[in-house]
Amino acid sequence: MSESIDPVSADVETLGEPKVDSPLPFQHFVPHQKKVTMEIPQELHQKEGEEPEFYTFEESGPKESIYFDPSKTKCAIVTCGGLCPGINDVIRAIVMEAYYQYGVSSILGIRFGLQGFIPKYKHEVWELTPASVSNIHEFGGTVLGSSRGHQSSEEIVEALERLNVNVLFLVGGDGSMKAAAAVAQEVRRRNMKISVMGIPKTIDNDIPFISRSFGFDTAVSKAIEAIRCAHTEATGAYHGIGMVKLMGRESGFIAAEASLSLKEVNFVLIPEEPFELEGDYGFLNRLRERLVSRGHAVIVVAEGSGQDLCAKELGTEREQVTDASGNPVLGDICELLQDKIKGYFKSRNMDLTLKFIDPSYIIRSVPANSSDRVYCGFLGQNAVHAAMAGKTNMVVSKLQDRYVDLPLDLVTQRERRKLDITSNYWRAVLESTGQPHSLRNS
Amino acid sequence: MSESIDPVSADVETLGEPKVDSPLPFQHFVPHQKKVTMEIPQELHQKEGEEPEFYTFEESGPKESIYFDPSKTKCAIVTCGGLCPGINDVIRAIVMEAYYQYGVSSILGIRFGLQGFIPKYKHEVWELTPASVSNIHEFGGTVLGSSRGHQSSEEIVEALERLNVNVLFLVGGDGSMKAAAAVAQEVRRRNMKISVMGIPKTIDNDIPFISRSFGFDTAVSKAIEAIRCAHTEATGAYHGIGMVKLMGRESGFIAAEASLSLKEVNFVLIPEEPFELEGDYGFLNRLRERLVSRGHAVIVVAEGSGQDLCAKELGTEREQVTDASGNPVLGDICELLQDKIKGYFKSRNMDLTLKFIDPSYIIRSVPANSSDRVYCGFLGQNAVHAAMAGKTNMVVSKLQDRYVDLPLDLVTQRERRKLDITSNYWRAVLESTGQPHSLRNS
Amino acid sequence: MSESIDPVSADVETLGEPKVDSPLPFQHFVPHQKKVTMEIPQELHQKEGEEPEFYTFEESGPKESIYFDPSKTKCAIVTCGGLCPGINDVIRAIVMEAYYQYGVSSILGIRFGLQGFIPKYKHEVWELTPASVSNIHEFGGTVLGSSRGHQSSEEIVEALERLNVNVLFLVGGDGSMKAAAAVAQEVRRRNMKISVMGIPKTIDNDIPFISRSFGFDTAVSKAIEAIRCAHTEATGAYHGIGMVKLMGRESGFIAAEASLSLKEVNFVLIPEEPFELEGDYGFLNRLRERLVSRGHAVIVVAEGSGQDLCAKELGTEREQVTDASGNPVLGDICELLQDKIKGYFKSRNMDLTLKFIDPSYIIRSVPANSSDRVYCGFLGQNAVHAAMAGKTNMVVSKLQDRYVDLPLDLVTQRERRKLDITSNYWRAVLESTGQPHSLRNS
Amino acid sequence: MSESIDPVSADVETLGEPKVDSPLPFQHFVPHQKKVTMEIPQELHQKEGEEPEFYTFEESGPKESIYFDPSKTKCAIVTCGGLCPGINDVIRAIVMEAYYQYGVSSILGIRFGLQGFIPKYKHEVWELTPASVSNIHEFGGTVLGSSRGHQSSEEIVEALERLNVNVLFLVGGDGSMKAAAAVAQEVRRRNMKISVMGIPKTIDNDIPFISRSFGFDTAVSKAIEAIRCAHTEATGAYHGIGMVKLMGRESGFIAAEASLSLKEVNFVLIPEEPFELEGDYGFLNRLRERLVSRGHAVIVVAEGSGQDLCAKELGTEREQVTDASGNPVLGDICELLQDKIKGYFKSRNMDLTLKFIDPSYIIRSVPANSSDRVYCGFLGQNAVHAAMAGKTNMVVSKLQDRYVDLPLDLVTQRERRKLDITSNYWRAVLESTGQPHSLRNS
Lengths: 442, 442, 442, 442
Known about the structure:
Number of strands of chain A: 19
CATH class of the largest domain in chain A: Alpha Beta
Helix content of chain A: 25-40%
CATH topology of the largest domain in chain A: Rossmann fold
Radius of gyration of chain A: 24 Å
Strand content of chain A: 15-25%
Distance between the termini of chain A: 45 Å
Number of domains of chain A: 2
Oligomer: homotetramer
């Protein structure tokens, strides 16, 4: 059977022709033109329409000829936004690869996110060496520190120029990837030759064209520890309810995955699937049914779920509030749920013991687990390979089990990924929890 | 050197003379009169005065002649109050010992605490067997369920009579031990021959004559995971503060022990050591100094600390509020601290990133670690030995590394244990944190 | 850009036309003809030639019309070969899916592998229910028990007939998948309508068309605990060497992945990359250089590496020895290495402390970690979906992040997967360890 | 009741009168004469006779007046013998206490055990600072390195003199404590004023007057992971046997404690309780009975058990072999057991699957768990307090939950602790395993 496909070609920008011989002692380089073709489901590419599409990506890896002369190359690493397991692994991998394999002359560590470029903050700049990073992967967080919020891309590029930086590695979330794109644009505008490499970070797993963001696996493994405790508390009391709040502002990936992993969850509430509280098919009655039939219930709530209910309850003015990164401050759905549950059962004279657990930073501040460590190692190495080859304005990605280089705009100019509630994945979650396919009355 | 001491003799009540041969195949029994003498520091005996005292206790263990005929003996187990790691281990040990070693005819599991004895709640009663408990120690919580609150000791004894129970094992906290004493008294009043065995449970480690309550070690090991995350968050931001709330209503043992274990804590606030917020020597200024000199800070707060500050802030009327067990509802010191810290630094134009972690039930709902497992095994076994020997109105205890049988009133009629802030132990905590010896201005 | 590809169509055998309405309450079924196209690298498809190829696979998931009438369907599960993390998860998922979602009438658990079908062994057959499997995923191993070795497919099919089994789920390794194919063939020969579903299990990760076998991730995470200890021992002594033996008879995936995860490994020896002991470029001299320059060394050895050296050392007659499953008994490369290392350093008068760790079953007997749990859940569910739809003679697979149904012969008639030593993956391992690209003199 | 006791007074040697004011900011010092009286069971004091005895010990802790002027005091730390969880914690605690609390001028780290004092080895000497030790407790082993074997106490004292060391902290086992005593004697002979502080280390928990040696708790918690795997393997096969070898040359504490913790062990073999293989009451027949009745068995073997059987099997000449520390090389009881078991069952035509696990260094090379961390912190601090107060020729100990200073000869001149097989403790082990009280025919 022969099939004709028409793949979208996702090519990466380069600074110029690679003319330097790679110093890597390895013989099996990845040809510059090496591409891989993939069928990408809608959930990952986030374009209109429900169908998968074919894309052709540049394969990550070391190139035989490179753009930068390592002995004259200076790198900088900056980490932005909230913590996520594995950031230190990425930093370590970049330093080790750049230093030991390519022999670059210097690697700077920018402190406290993009603030570190801005003179008024007076943060120091660190020189990173193999010795200084050799053990950092044993610890969570980022040794460089981080910060939230926008900084001027002009000032950032001026700092890069002042520091003689040729390659900027930027580890950060959605907003930071947009900042990376702005920096790349400013670099281009000034006709400079600085490679801008994004390493996308999101504990919510909501970045398009990335099958699973780094740290997600670790976060889920910690989340289930909290859920297990909630289950213990729920079964330890008559009509016991254990409620766990998990990260997930606009997508419920952590909540869903944790529920698939720990089979004791009975309700998962996620932003992608609105629900009602009242009515026969609403959440409260379903919860009552569960308690009556089984005596206890475990509820996992993604922090961004039920925002319509919060807004209705609290009025709409708080909608406007945003945090330092410009993200809207979410309504506290768990507080609302606890109030409503208690009121509902009290009005029915039913006893109830409700235990609420908010593991919060516990699931994002831990060191990466072994698979995230391997993953972060590849992200760091591939970022160095791509940068040394002169690629820029891109991010490294693991997509359907393969490492590819992606143009930055693929990541920044599409919607955030959301969990597809028509997918086998979400169906499996529903089967695991046993909750109804809808918690709405119509 | 000869020394004359005058030990307090802590003898345990018995139901009558032991005339039945023990069915245990073992040859090395503990003589009925076997006692151990110990010098008990004030912190443990909780009597007036600061000096240690000598006590003589009955040593735990199997007796050659016992009081109950196992083939006619029926036991019941009930678990009360909040969860604590190791309850299932105690249940399992009681069942295994009673069933396999003594061959008792039946062991009942009373569901949902003392409620399980009261007809109106209609909780079922379980028959516990080796098969039904063989794996329960792999899970946290209590398979029997628990509840809080007072129940009539008359109704409880009537239930024991109705169920033909000869031995009641009661796992519970301070209030439950008082309930056990009331049950024992009611049994005596009715001239019945029921042994009442307390297995004291407190995650706060605040029971006198118990060096370390079961589950405490496990709880501390979980608490440090939360603190480690707080440290990661604190170091991951400019002027980062990580604050962790830990259990400890009237005593700061978990907070103190966790800080000794994880060296990254900079301030520990406990109920036993009041502190001030304002002033040069107050907490806020000390925190500021720490941030200025080291850039970040980790604060561990026992939930019961600073209650005078909460009362002052919130007025006194809420003092009256108590929960189902009759414990006063605590003021939210962590909320107060967060408000005050943010206000203090804002008024000084200092940037700040404060991350608050409340691990709450996560540290009490986990399965027991290996040392608590061994400990709980001995508690359960020794409770069975003592009960079969006809002892009653007592608790089992591990005291200075030895298992002893204690009269119930030793535990119920003294003050709760508090951390001795003049001790080497607290001094070691202060050295570990580096915090000033006082956070008060006078 | 338009591209014409000529994918291999990997279609799955079916028992007949699906005419029964699925009982699943879900609306989003996977159409029977739904296929996904993938570019498969040589390492995964294991065909001659080094190039990737395109394949079209049937997507896993529930079908709207199914073949078997659930109320009349009886299933059987059997687990074969060595243990692997996640087997219990697969069993649990099959039972829960078949019972709760499809409502099949009965699910049998065959005990101790294929022996369980053979009358002479007299193993009982279990009835599996949701209650009996609800907690098994918390434990490693297989509740059904397992065994190695060949059994007659005629006898197996006779047992299936005797037990009225319509669907056989067989969890097992390479040999067991061949047994599954033989059973399917025998079923076909007899014109019976029994679905044979393979769930491929291999801790060595060496099955073609499966990106990562279930349990592999967990095994690696345990392996690194052993390696970390070896590193501690190595650094704790002058000229300290820590050597760890890991699974991997013909492929070094666990050894390689563990070394990528734990950065402290200095030498990885795998079956795919032969090495020499003597000579300037041989292992012993490289090890000496490492000790002289850094003072210690950590060596990870896949059990199947260096078999040519073992054969040479021990003569060739032992080549013939095979175990119950027909696998050749490997030469003990770690013993050989220890002898050679000690002799080499002794002859050079160099002090040495060599600590050898063989974690053996510790890395395969543990419960699945959270990501393997999710994975195994999908494998079990998808096996049930496929079987109920009438598919047979197939295996479920996760391939490049998607779940697909594969014809059994894809898995059984290709070579076992081997690590591609010309790949970026192996290069990354070499970079991580810092070992030379070859330990051979020519 | 008044009781007259005649306690043994265990006084510690001092270098001279303490005349320097302690720099500690703390007000609650421990008076120089502060003693605690304890009733010590025979198992702990290891004197002839089975009865407990009373002892009076000096309480550990900071003294108001001290002997050494901190600003002129130089310390040295050396770690000897095999690894044990918590050594780094002890090192860290000594450095932090000496540096931050006392302000000593310098702390040297001697590398690779006593070898580090001997010029011919040419090991460097490290300067230890708070910065260099701040994270070491997160890692197992010893940062200083260790070695086995005897070194001349004259050479050691000469090195101390050459390095101007006033206080030597020696972390080590039985042999090292004897070396410490020899060093203290040589110091006295030369009329020098050097404090010699022992911190006893033994993973076997076999040191008299120490209730539980540091690291033991951690080791047990790791040992049970191996046993759990053995249990999984045993239940995963027909007539499955899981055998685990644990440390314990002359005492079975780890094996016994691990079996108390993990309830799945069916036979524990320890050095203190000899056993026979053959005969109705011998091990092999008991094992057969267990397999017949329950289908599987888990056996935990302390490495030093059954040495009489090994000697008989192998002849006596190997008795003479000793390792670098002078300890006799043990016969391989596990190999013997495996051979005998296989032969026994083969001769009875019984199928058998035997899986052997030797976790070896995995249980001793891990970082200390939270309770060992706290413990090691106190040991280090108390060693510094005692040394600064001018005490010498002593060890720090935790005995029946209190920290006391012990004369070195209490520890070095008594027998190694053995598990008392007439104790409640061993009885509890037997009850937990269900094994017969004796595996001997007479």
